[in-house]
Amino acid sequence: MKNTISERIFDFLKNYPPFNLISNATLIEVSQNVEIQYFEKDQIIFSQNDNPHEHFYIIYQGSVRLYRFVENEKHILDICDEGDLFGLRPLIMKENYVMGASANEETILYGIPIALFHDIILNYPKVSQFLIASFATNTREPFSEKHKGKLFANVSAIQKIEHGFSEIQSANYNKNPITCSPDTTVQTACIIMTKNIINSIIVTENDIPIGIITDKDIKTKIGTGLYKITNKVSDIMNSPVVTFHQNISVAEAQIKLLKHKVSHLCITKDGTNKSEIVGILTQQDLILTQGNSPSLLIKEIKNAKDTETLKHIRTKASGLTKGYLEQEIPIYFVTKVISEINTAITKKAIRLSISEIGKEPPVKFSWLALGSQGRKEQLLMTDQDNALVFENVAPAQYNSVKNYFLQLSEKVTEKLNIVGFEYCPANIMASNPKWCISLEEWEQQFEEWITDPIPEKILLSIIFFDFELIYGDDSLYNKMAKSVFKTIEKNQIFLSFLGKVTLDNPPPLGFFKQFLVEDNGENKDSFDIKSRAIRPLVDGARILSLHHNLRVNNTIARYEKLMEMEPQNSDLFESCANAFKILLQFRTSQGLTNNDNGKFVDINSLNKADRLKLKSCFKPIKNVQEAIKLRFKTSQIPQI
Amino acid sequence: MFSWFKYKNYPLFWKEYSKKFKQKQPKSFENTRFVIFDTETTGLDISNDRILSIGAIGIFENVIEVIDNFEIYLKQDQFKAETVEIHGILKEGKLTKMSEAEAMENFIAYIGNAVLVAHHTAFDIEMINAALKRLDLPKLKNKTIDTGILYKKLEGKKDAHFNLDLLSDEFSIPKHDRHTAAGDAFITALLFLKIISKLKKERNLHYSDLFRVSGKEGLM
Fold first, then answer.
1. Minimal Cα–Cα distance from A586 to chain B, Å?
2. Chain A contacts of B55, Cβ < 8 Å?
3. Which of residues 161-190 of B touch A (CB under 8 A)?
């Protein structure tokens, strides 16, 4: 039966998320069940604390004001316009309206029955992703008692899917691992391996994996004559084994393999190497599931003989990033993989440079990544930010040691530049004599920055306090980190100064179709997503982590850690982490599309879904800034 | 006596329909189901022209319920090529069509005792009544509202007379599917909600006012 009216509603809805994400048949059903309502200007649609309606609304014509009374004072929270959704969260949460809604002008609304939508949320992961993105605490007061910990609580449907979102495809592994006892001879083990056509065998004692032998060991230990085939497997096995529990996802497996630089993972009952073996997962298994493997790239980096090859591999990594984003693999995982690749490239560049110099480093040193690389959030090619610390040496030796490391840094930064990491315009690089210094000089420097926080020093601490060890000696790195925390602990006022700077970037609050856009220069009318949205979240995470002595650099990891430290604010931090993920993903896909660093977003090119997505991230920014303002009493700090 | 005999022989659907008017009728906006409808016809001659299609949609508690909609196309014995241009309904089109008798049975079952609303209701009602008469059935019993007349009750519109196109423009209603019965019914439904809302804002509007003709007592 023809249904002209619902066809017209269908035509409207299909232009707007999340309706553009569902099948035509389902959308037709939705369209047939829409209720249409008309509101005069200023007429109330629902009031704060009303019981939830049976419908949520999408604006067909006009605009709607969302407001909230706090202590009898009315706050306008947002103005929604054509195609915007509102009034959905309370229906899912089964709670009363947290805010009121009234017509901002003459308005026609389409009411979508929630009863129909519950199934859609369950059946369309993309719809729930969209809702999660637009909920990322759109509506909440940061510290109100009432809504604590309720972001996704009580919403089994959404929670379930959110889980499925971050936990991608589970990895396939061999559930019948071939094992042998430690007393088995190498020859017997090889016969078993050949018979079963496998490239590894697990050595077990009472089903507990104690070691593993792979083809490589046969080649390097037997083939070379180091051991004989009559030796016991326990003589040549690799021990202990790297283990994981049974619910392993492709992402986790990949990270584990990369981290431990192994090709096999033993899957055990409880995930430790003290429990029974239940399976074996090889790199090959992952390649088969994935098709495209970062492990391969890492391998290529290891084997690279020159900078040009590294450059080529980094280009491939960009392709990988793009593929991951298209597959909607969680951004946290993508950043981890790309950071591992960048780290491997830097390491290789250092090794190549050392062999070019032809002389081993005179003393211990650490190569440090700073800024976004230090936080492992680098997805696109950005500028290099790095530094070097070397062991304290006697004054007589100092110059020659420093010269060696400057020469090394010069070579490394040059190579990184060729690979595609451009020189830092502010010259924050290890090749700068200022940033290639001994441990005690760094410690002095940090102390000076913290105890005398003048603006330029604060800016430096922002960059330097996100340092991460890339290559070299970890004791130097650990000592540096310790000195930072110790000095900050004694000088808490520093955090207030840091907070003040952090608040210098007001969040764009997306009032009525508008973003805070740049009003002059080359990037006129674009939105500076890096400075206005990403940086405030990064800054917020940093200052709070310094406050809690957290030795984590990654912004998402910092917020996750903060959720543990301050359970009372866990919903705020969760929303920040969510917003950060969305923004990072956004910046990366923008950057990949425009082949640049994704710093500026042309707002005219954004579709409705993207606009909503971006807008949803602004609230957490504002909330975390408010929190910092209060906690570190930044208003008492004079303008700096 | 004769009419009593005839009543006895009305088909079941008509008896059901009549029964609905025997009960107490709703007396307020909120309790009333409004059916906003439109007909497309082969022309404007009540006795010679025929209904091509009927489109309708229900309003209850100030809400347009899309699920409560009605859209049918009728088989035509009389076919006038010259009006095809306006309504776009061909004699043999892809649409499933029904006979006039089936159409009336469906329509009557759908409207029940709802208040019928149309833009320039008189014509549409007459077309339906003519069809009913051909089936030996009495006239419609429903109360009716004409959005054209309702519009004149708004301040300063006393002598205005506008067609649906002009009113759609004035009330900024998108003119999709204009000149299809369902499309026009939908536009009229939005128009109806908007006019009612404006009337309520202008004055204390009583339910009974809706049915009064402009220029008479009460509203002016």
1. 35
2. 4-5
3. 172, 174, 176-177, 180, 182-183, 185-186, 189-190
Class of the CATH domain delimited by A297-448+455-481: alpha beta
Using DSSP, state whether A61 is helix, strand or coil.
strand
pLDDT in tens, A254-299: 667 776 778 888 988 888 888 889 888 887 666 555 434 677 778 7
Model confidence at A462: pLDDT above 60: yes
B95-126 pLDDT, tens digit each: 678 999 999 999 999 999 999 999 989 999 99
Distance from CA of A11 to the nearest CA of B (A): 11
Tell me how far apart the alpha carbons of residues A579 and A400 are, in angstroms, rounded to a whole number. 48
What is residue B93's predicted lDDT score, i.e. its pLDDT?
Answer: 58
Say yes or no for a CB contact (<8 Å) between B71 and A40.
Answer: no
Q: Which residues pair with A64 in a beta bridge?
A: A80, A103
Nearest residue of chain B to residue A2 (CA atoms): B71
pTM to 2 decimal places = 0.49
Can you give A380-400 as a three-state secondary structure string? CCCCCCEEEEECCCCHHHHHH
pLDDT in tens, A320-344: 777 676 666 677 777 888 888 889 9
For residue B212, pLDDT beyond 90: no
Domain residue spans of chain A: 4-123, 179-290, 297-448+455-481, 499-636
CB contact A82 to B (< 8 Å): no
**Contact assignment for A35 to B63 by CB distance below 8 Å:** yes
Q: A467 — phi, psi (to 5°)?
A: -80, 150
Fold of A179-290: CBS-domain (3.10.580)
Domains and CATH numbers, chain B: 29-211 (3.30.420.10)
- Spell out the residues 6+ positions from residue A44 whose beta carbon is closer than 8 angstroms to its own: A100, A101, A102
Partner-chain contact A9 B62, CB within 8 Å: no
Q: Are A307 and A419 in contact (CB under 8 A)?
A: yes
Q: Both tokens of residue A489? A: 């602990």
Give the pLDDT confidence of A571-584 residue by residue, as tens digits: 899 989 988 988 88
pLDDT at A569 over 50: yes
- Amino acid letter, A138: N
- What is the CATH T-level fold of the domain A4-123, as seen in this structure? Jelly Rolls (2.60.120)
Q: Which of B57, B73, B96 sits opposite A5 (nearest CB)?
A: B57
Mean pLDDT of chain B: 83
Smallest Cβ–Cβ distance between B62 and the set A4, A5, A37 belongs to A37
**Do residues A444 and A452 make contact, with C-beta atoms less than 8 angstroms apart?**
no
Question: Cα A623–A52–A88 angle (5° rounding)?
Answer: 55
Q: Determine the distance in angstroms separating the CA of A39 from the nearest CA of chain B, rounded to an integer.
A: 8
Asked if the C-beta of B197 comes within 8 angstroms of chain A's C-beta atoms, the answer is yes
Instruction: With CB atoms and an 8 Å threshold, state whether A4 touches B177.
Output: yes
Give the residue from chain B lying closest to A31, CA to CA.
Answer: B66
**DSSP for A284-320, written as a single string:** HHHHHHHSS-HHHHHHHHHH--SHHHHHHHHHHHHHH
3-state secondary structure of A143: coil
pLDDT at residue A348 tops 90: yes
> A387 pLDDT exceeds 90?
yes
Contact between B63 and A37 using a beta-carbon 8 Å cutoff: yes
CB pairs < 8 Å spanning A and B: 68
Residue B92 has pLDDT above 80, yes or no: no
